[in-house]
Please model this.
Amino acid sequence: MLELSNLKVDIEGSRILNGISLSVAAGELVCLVGRNGAGKTTTFRSIMGYRRARSGGISFEGTDLAKLPTWQIAQRGIGFSPEESEVYTDLTVAENLELSTWTRPSGRAAGIRIEEAYTVFPKLRQYLARGGGQLSGGERKMVSIARALTLDPKLLLLDEPFEGLSPAIIPLIAEGVASIRAMGKGVLIAESNVHHIPDYVDRIYVLERGEVMFSGTLAQAHRDRDVMRVIAGQIEAAS
Model:
């Protein structure tokens, strides 16, 4: 589904991504792990067309995304929930979710897509008429992911979906992600805290200084001393 091949990205003359390669298949949950500044968000922004690669490839279902504008990338079926959530504060929860149904015409009716999002995050039904600016951080995160889901995507990019959330909200987000994966959609998560990686993750990539230093299962990562040293550093930086 998604293939990144030897991707290199510079920002203001500095190399941020130095030849990373990764893949996500339909129905897979893949996690890109790295401490702050490792290049996770730059990877996501490059996939979505906000950043242009210096070299390398970004392919989605055989289509080269490298030169497409963001709106065309979204229309091809990639939903994005940014770390900051970016919920529209002057719109209600219901209006926030409805927006994506206009962005990507789909064979499925808008009402079906919206209902599916509420099935994934049933707590949001309580806040249909509440403004985005009246939500807690965890509620905004749920709206952000649900809004990306109403796009009817084949692939979801979730940037730090658990960061800064209360312990009571994290399980709700994790359950929602599991439900999305069960629909057969690909999910790519960026995460800085290894403790937040869901147990049901299919594969992880550990990103360090713009390079992938490990790819494999979570269990394999725990058996790799070099990877564990990086992970230990991430935990220390996050604490």
